[in-house]
Predict the structure.
Amino acid sequence: MEQTQPTTAETVVESQSTGVPKEEAQLATIVYVLQALSLFVGLTSIAGVILNYVKRGSLQSEVVKSHFSFQIRTFWWTLLWSILALIATTITFGIGGFTFLIVIVWYVYRVVKGWIRLNDQQPI
């Protein structure tokens, strides 16, 4: 018996069912870019978290849903620790400055880790 090759449409449907939808992955990538840019222009992370909240309900991919949750948690924890670092800076500059440094390193780690996992189509 002869085997037939799947049509292009069948191949596309198959790859979409096993992979992350391109549009959803692009949304998560945009948020990671906005988070990365926030190191230079702080307000972009606010735009990113707004995008997370607005688009989160329409996501189909569990992988992208995990990234959106990760991005939202990253935003809120960074905000909390930044406020605490600011308070610590008013008390003593050394402790506050060191706390800000830790927050920045942690933030960069989360953005890079998440972005890499998204590119590998892995949940976080």
User: Anything to note?
Assistant: The chain has five helices and no strands.
